[in-house]
Amino acid sequence: MSELPLRDRYLALIDEIVETTLKGKISSVDMVYQMLLKGITSGTGEVFELALSDRLNAIQSQVDSEKDELKKAKATRSLRAIKTIQSQWQRWQEQNKTTEAIASAVKEITTADADERLAIFLRVTDPNQKNPLNLAQLQELSKSLQQFAQADSDLQQFSEGITRGLTSWQRLQDNLVSWMYEQNQGSLGFGGVPGERGPWASWDKQVNSELPQRLFRTLAMEESIIQFAEQQRGVTLRDWVEMAIVLQYLQRGLVNWFDQQAYDVKAGPKLSISTFLTFAVIWSQLASGFQSIGTVYSDACSQIMFQILRTLAQRPYFPFYGGIFASFSGTYLRDALDYLDEPLQQVEGTQEKARILTLLGYSQRALGQYQRALDFHQEALEIARSASDRPCEIANLNHLSRTYVQEQDYAEAINYSQRALILSRQAGDRTGEANALVNLGYSEVMQAQELENLEPETYEAAINYLEQGLKLSEKLGDIQSKALCVSSLGIAYLVIGQHQTAIKYLEDGFKTAQVSGDLYLQGRNLACLAEAYYHLQNAEKTVYTGCLGMYLLEQIASLEWRQSAGLLTILQGQIGAEDFYNLLQQHRPKIISVIGVDGYDHIPKLLQEYKQDI
Q1: Can you tell me the mean pLDDT for 264-284?
Q2: Contact present, 89 and 56 (Cβ < 8 Å)
């Protein structure tokens, strides 16, 4: 039987078990299980399952059509035997799923073309799988690949990269969060003095492998990740796999730790979200940098980025009203949507896809790409509706309202905010309701301004919506929604010329956005503060807030930095370059405390860039 083709061998095994059962030589289901255990080769379960299905269908058809009573009785007994084999096959699968998963992974990697192996490796080690590989299983995968490897082949490099990555991770694991207690006042987050404190500098000292060390050093010094990747022309598959494993396990380890700190107002979900998005951005930037070396590493970086986003999309604290500030090119975007559309993940994938599109839409609005943002949110809205993901549906109605304001289509903005308000109240989505109230009030203020409606009642009604939203967000303890509420109130009062009141809300908005970690809202509040101070002829504060806002918006590639640059250029023309830079110098310590020395030095360059483009 061993010389037969595999499918025929499994059909013969099934027939043997059936015949033995009919002759009364099998006294228990355990005997069937033992025959399966002895007869099925690891990694060939799919072939056995097809053979079993064929035999089951054939015998079922015989039972249904047989007229002869004796033959029908025998076929019925055979069918019972087949169903016993089927139940024991399910038992075999359950008890051997780890071995099968590793064998299947090894088969996929070893039989693939060389340029496809990295993508397949990342797919079989994807944490979003139903039964993701744990550390011990990943080490087992490394050993299995080694058995197929020739000296210095890519399979050997995979094997060694996995082993080295796991070794490096074990060195880092015990000191995963020690950097938090080295920082002043035990502050949490990825901040710190460049090169001295923070996670990257701490991990740089603990790991002793060259590529991860260089990456950590780059991150610690706040240097360009894209340039770092562009310089890795001699990177080997072994090095890349090690770096990938180290980075992925660091991200998962941090998220697990932050998830356990739910009682800590400084940590918990806020820092879990921050970790997901920080590592997604790192992988996005690595993808951009590796593009100049070749598509294999670049595509692999993108693949990991989308895996991270997909994991975040499944978390209960998914940030419907926050964003990721990375520039997704058409290629990356297509890859993302292909990944999210995987047939085997169709049900989960649709909901996850809608949520990730929500993030992408928010990000595109921050970048000033309003039409792309509308396209993302419209598609997310339709998917969320079909997937019955009501919070996601409401969030996208709110985002569409906000984006139409940016497009100065205030009637559509009001329409979507009203729909969001009705639906959120029906669904009991209080966060969605708070955002809808804010968007409705904000849209009505902007429409009244465009129509030059000077009736106080119009603005009072609109601002009443904004204040209701603020009260609700404060009641919910929702920092992200509160940041949007106070910011919107500040802008509303700025629009109607109540500059002192606007400043009060905008300053609160900036501080709240700092707590929520939303860089776009931080920059937007500062930019609006500069405008309010300019109207009050306070040049000193206009320079301080305008320069900070301009820098933060430019850092996330938002086109809105140019509005601040334009205001500052007008002010410079009014008070003279010397006085302008004297005011900037006066605020140097305060500015450095927020954006560092390099950020401060970059401000004059941005103003010069703006003037050259006029």
Answers
A1: 75
A2: no
Alpha-carbon distance of 145 to 162, in angstroms, equals: 10
Dihedral of alpha carbons 369, 375, 378, 380, sign = negative
Q: What is the per-residue pLDDT for 330?
A: 44
Residue 119 identity:
A
The torsion angle over the Cα atoms of residues 398, 490, 554 and 576, rounded to 10 degrees, is: 160
CA distance 375 to 385: 16
* DSSP designation for 318: -
Report d(CA 215, CA 232) in Å as an integer.
10
Q: Are 437 and 466 in contact (CB under 8 A)?
A: yes
The backbone region for 43, taken as left when phi is positive above 0, alpha when psi lies in -120 to 50, beta otherwise, is left
DSSP notation for 151-217: TT-HHHHHHHHHHHHHHHHHHHHTTTTHHHHHSGGG--SS-SSTTTSSHHHHHHHH---HHHHHHHH
User: Distance (Å, rounded) from C-alpha 539 to C-alpha 42?
Assistant: 75
- 277: confidence class by pLDDT, cuts 50, 70, 90: confident
What is the rounded CA–CA span in Å between residue 364 and residue 440?
A: 21
Amino acid at 63: V
* Predicted model pTM: 0.71
Cβ atoms of 505 and 490 closer than 8 Å: yes
What CA–CA distances, in Å, run from 198 to 23, 172, 215? Answer: 72, 14, 14
Distances (CA, A) of 8 to 47, 353, 538: 10, 42, 87
Helices and strands, counts by H and E, the chain: 29, 0
Q: Please give the Cα distance from 192 to 600 (Å, whole number).
A: 16
Question: Tokens 């990825």 map to which residue?
Answer: 190
> Cα(260)–Cα(252) distance, rounded to whole angstroms?
13
What pLDDT, in 10s, does the model give residues 63-81? 889 888 888 888 899 889 9
What DSSP string runs through 346-359? HHHHHHHHHHHHHH
Q: What is the pLDDT of residues 386-398, one digit of tens each?
A: 889 999 999 999 9
Report the Cα 415 to chain-centroid distance in Å.
30
Integer-rounded Cα radius of gyration of the chain: 30
Whole-angstrom Cα distance, residue 34 to residue 83?
A: 16
